Each structure stands twice: as structure tokens, then as C-alpha cells.
Amino acid sequence: MSWRNWPALRAKVADAGHEIGCRCEWRAGDSRREELTLRYAYHGPLRKDAISCARSKLAILSESLRVTAMKGFEAVVRHGPIRSTGCAATLFAVALLSAGNAGTARSANASGTVAVALAGKSAAMYALPASRNYDWDPGLMSRGGVPSAGWRVCNSKPLAPAGDGDDSAAINSLINSCAPKTVVELAAGTFSMGQGHYVAITKGIVLRGAGAGKTILVNPRNAFTTTSVGNGSARDTTPIIIVGPGRWVNPDGDARCNGATAYQPAYMQLLSANARKGSSSVTVADGSIFAAGQMVLVDETSGASWRPDVAGLSTSIWAGPKYAVEWQMHKPGLSIDDPIATGVIPSAANNFSGSGNGKDAACWFSRQDRPQSEIKQIAKVKGKVITFTSPLTMGYLTSQYAELTTYTGSNTPVEEAGVEDLTVRGGGDGAVRFEDTMYSWAKNIECTMWYGECVSMENSFRDELVDSYIHDAAWAEPGGAGYAISLAGGSSEILIENNVVLKANKVIVSRSAGAGSVVAYNYMDDGYIATDEGWIEIGLNASHMVGSHMVLFEGNQSFNMDSDDTHGNSTYIVYFRNYATTVRSAFRSDQTGDTIDDVRNIPRSGGPKRAAGAMRYSYWMTYVGNVLGQPGLTTAANGYVDSATRPGNWGPAIWLLGWNDVRPYTVDPEVAATAIRDGNWDSYLGKQTWLTDARAQLPNSMYLSCKPAFFGSDKWPWLDPDTGTIYALPAKQRFDAGTPNTVPASGEACIR
């Protein structure tokens, strides 16, 4: 039998300009199931909390109701049998949630029209334009959170350190003997890693200690570089823990920057039609190489050519259409340029790349000439159509050789593996590395005294770093020497939440990665350069290699929000309800022992002091509902201005958009021109400003439906951009209390 369509239903929210329509359908061959399609007719997210509200508060709906697909501004909801009024009731719930107000449905008449009346509504709900928005559902949120609490412990007695100088073999032997979805327990004590040895988690198990600060995994050969000890490099360039199938993994067929990668249809399929942002599916010529459940990579070439250098540092710059990709390569060349071959002819022999020779910067953190990318999981394959479990964060074009690539064989990702309740110290090539993983996590760990990146997620999908303490890099220098958190290699929909991150060179970087990721409710401070202590580093940051895009920073506290252009640009980054102070908290350098105090200009005023910055070519940035600066500090009397726009005038400022640190220190005007700046509390002006759109009510969150449990009795949201009032951030409270490893509640739970 054919589909039977119920009447289309539509709700219009008074004064808000929102229209939401739905249609219910029933297939006779499956009498237990019906489908409900909801569509927004405005530029805003289809929030899953609306569906949750309908499920929990409207008894007319089945408890099995769940979102099964997202496509643009449509959601398909599949549930048990309901009456036609159930469709109307769900539509009504969505209308109320989208407006953020209480209301009443007057009727659901025979034609299916629902009238909605709102009570006490003063302003429309703020919504980002479709190009800036995403259905953020990062990490394990889509699976109900970290699942390990109920897993069986594999070993009858916690493994204790042997004291023989190398405990890695015993730990790895125990991991190999345990079944997936079990826990390997380590006792309190110090576990040493032998020269060149590390713990390898190659299956879906959890490695759990007795607590951070109690169970310690250490490489004793690596220590801080100081003015009297060390030379800025690790003695043993080995991580402490690697989660994944191996240390060196990649998408299938990729040459890993050891030469050009050829197009290989057994692993790679060019898209046969453009894929649009918000769609959950792509079309390829041959879908037979793909299967449901697989992790895959979506990417496209940069389309770069010589274009006018808008920033004015040179005549031309190597960039893609609309400067969505801007490589650090100029003509005439500059000393800051990365090594990138230009004018390359695309062919099957180089996987249609127009940039790079297979051994240069065009493949440092992505496949050659494919820096814009995202990793997905396949929900289903139907002929040539591949459907994902989450929507695309951007559009992908056949004119730029958009492609879908597998991770199989030795590159098959490790799923649902975790590291919990322990300390790692002395990592020599990173400390904890997630390499080719999905739905995996580090939870309540401490990481310190590392070289490289403390926690790295590369070629990974929906991983998490939560409730952890990352501090004191062994060598806090740029060039990858001392970064706290790194996303790379297309890693997507990652959750970085409720962490304390301090005293590294950069507190977070995202290199050709980060699509759909969320960095939220972290305390991130004291980013510095060991050999240039006065320089105030990048704070909340989703950049440091071209291609990163669509990352949400929400509810964090840091010294600034910025996006660097050291190795090309990042785009479409969203900053929502963060607190940016313009200065670092006073601290001591691990290298020199010097006191660094930006407020008192000690050791010197290196700057630049800024609350919200974005360097040249950082286009389509979004700043909404943030608290910028501090009362009594960010004032004219202290040398501050509201917006530093004069070339080379990188003095203290609230806004520092389009700046650069290269002579002649020009300003890229397009950074400010393409930015959205709404609802931010500007402490210099002493008021909330709306610089792009009209005043509107701000939502509590862009990814959460309720108050996170780790806030306990504290107020959430924890800052008020209407008044500039700051309340308590749990991660900052933990650090201030001297208990950074003590996390009272899981980050996944919500308080209703």
C-alpha cells in the first residue's frame, strides 16, 4: 500500500516571525510506526529539547519517540502509534520551545491548524543565520553520555606497579586479555613506561585508575626544560597512552604526506552531486564500498589560486573561492610562508589536488589540498545515496572534487574506549593520543609535563575530553612544542567540557579539524611562550592550520577569544556566553620561575591585550552573549580602547578584529565586516551592545537542553550579558579551591 498523508499542520508564533510545519505519515506495512516531519521556516536550529519536552510532558506521545534523521531544518521523528492530535501537540511543543516562553494551544481544528498564544513575551528568541548555525550534538551526547559506569571490571584485583622500570607490558597484556565493554583497573601508585613503550588501547575497553593524582603513569626520562636543564625536546619521543588501532593511522589509501596520494575508487568515491550544508546524505557513483556504522571522511580540495591579498602583506595570496581557504603562501613570498607547491595540475594521480606536492604543508594535518573536511558515521546506504547520523557542517562541491573516503582494515576505528581517573606525566610525543577513534573519551584525568600535545584527537569522531585537569607543559613554546589540547586530521563533533587547562603555550588548537565540535564550560588560562613571557597567546581558539570551521565555544572563561592565521585561516567559529578577561591570571613560568602578571605589565607589556580578536582572513566569526573585559581594568585610564582598528595599534582593546603580527601590521577589514557581534557585554562601554542585529532574547545554550549536573546549585547560565554579571564557573571553582581533580558530578547529566 502507498503512504497515507495526514493534513499538514502549521504553527505561527506570535510576534516572533517563526513558522513551524509538520506532516505525519503512516506506512501500512508497518502499522506500529509513524513518522513525523517538522520543518522550521526561519533560520534557527531544530532543537532536540523540543522533542524531549513533547515526549516527557505530553502523554499523547509514545515513550519510544526519537529523532532518526536530521536534514537541513527538517527532523524526522519516529515513534509508536499516535492520533493526529499527537502531531499537533508535538508541533505545539516545538513552537513553544523555539520561542522560549510559556503558552497555550487554543485548538487543533479539522484542517490541522494549531493556534499558539504566548504569555509574557517581550522579545523574539535570538537565532543565528543558517550559514552560522549547526545542530551541535557532540561527543557521546547522542548515546546518552559516557557508558562505562555500568561496565564490568575485567580484573579481579586492581593491577599494581611492578617497580621494575617498565609497567607498560603488564598493562597492555591485561588490556589484550579483557573483552570489549569491560574495565581494566589500575591500583594507586606510579606506573613507569619503558624507553619507547606506551599503553595501547586497541579495543573498546576502559583503563581506569584509582583517581587522578593517585594512579600515575609516567615516562621518567622526560622532564621540564628550564634555563639550566633540558634543550626544549623530549629525551623519549613516545606518548604515554594511545587509544586507537595504531600510532600512525589515516584514511584508507592516504600516503600520510610521504608522497602524492592517488585516487583509489576502492576507498574513495567522488561525490556525483553537490552536498549542501545541513544535509545528512551525499550521492556517489558507487555506494558498494560503504556500509552502515562505518566512519568516513568527507572533504574537498581548496580550489586555491592566486587572489588579491586583502590583508595587504603582499600582492597576492594562495586562497580558495571567497577566501574560505587561505593558505599561508604569498606572492611575492614572505618569511612567514609555509612550504606549499602552487599551480599543481589536478589529476587522478594526485587525487585531483591543485596545491602541494604530497610532502609539504598542504598535507600536514589533512589529506593533500583537502583542509576543509569532517568525519561522519554512516547511518545507512541505499544504492548511491549515503546517509549519515548527523548533518554536514558545510557544503561540498563537485567542482572542488568533493569526496567520501573510508577507514577500514588496519585503519578501522576503535569505538567506545576510555581513559579515566588517572594522571599521565612526561609524555614525549603527546601524552594521551586518540588516533582513529569514535565515541571514545578521557574523563577525570590529569595531564602534566608533556612535550607536543597533552591530549590529541586525530582522525576521530564524537570523542570527549571532560572533567579533567591539564596543566604545565614541559616546554611552553609554539611550533607544536607545548599545546594543551589538539584537534587534527578532520576530527569532528568532539566535546571538550568542564576542564581546567593552564600553563601551556596554546591552551587549545584545531588544525584542519573541529567541524561540529563544542568547547564548553572550561577554565582555560595562562597561555604563554616560554622564551617570550610578555606575549599573550591565543586563548579560546579553533585555528592554527587552515580549514577548521563550525566550532562552538560556549560558557568558557579565558584571557581572550581569538583565531590565528599562522598557518592559514579558520572560519565560521561561534563564541557564545563566554567570559574573556583580556589578561592572564598571574602565574610563574615553569621555565624561568619568573612571575608573569599582565595587569601589572610584568615582565613587560608584550600584549596584545584583547577580549575578542580574530587575525587576518578569519571570516564569518560570531560573537554572541559574551562578557568582554573586566570592570576597573578595561578602561581608558588603563590605556584600553573599545576597538583597535589602526594598523599596528594592537594596544589594550575589547575588540581586535583583522589584526596581524607581521609588518607592516595592516588590518584586514573583512574580518570585522563579516563578523556577527550581538548581545555582548562590553565592559569598556559599560553596556550590552547589538552591533549586527536587533535586540532579542538569548537562549541559555546552543547545545544543551538543560542545566548540566556539574553546576550543582550554582546559577546557569553562569554569566549575564545583559548586565555583565559573573557568577560561578565550576571548573574555575575547582581550581581556586585547590581541588582541580575533584569533579562532583558527571558532565553528561542534566538538572531539570
General description of the model:
- It is built from five helices and 58 strands.
- It is mainly beta and 752 residues long.
- It folds into three domains: 4-125; 198-245 and 413-690, Pectate Lyase C-like (3 Solenoid), CATH 2.160.20; 268-406, no CATH class.
- A hairpin with a 7-residue loop joins strand 3 (18-26) and strand 4 (34-40).
- The longest helix is centred in the N-terminal third of the chain and has 16 residues, at 84-99.
- The model is unreliable at 1-122 (pLDDT under 50).
What's a concise summary of this model?
The protein has 752 residues and is mostly beta strands.
Q: Describe the sheet with the most strands.
A: 23 strands, mixed
The CATH topology of the largest domain turns out to be Pectate Lyase C-like
Number of helices: 5
Report the top-level CATH class of the largest domain. Answer: Mainly Beta
Which structural class should the secondary elements be placed in? mainly beta
**What's the helical proportion of residues?**
under 10%
User: What is the CATH architecture assignment of the largest domain?
Assistant: 3 Solenoid
Low-pLDDT segments: 1-122
Give the overall shape, derived from the CA principal axes. Answer: globular
Tally of strands: 58
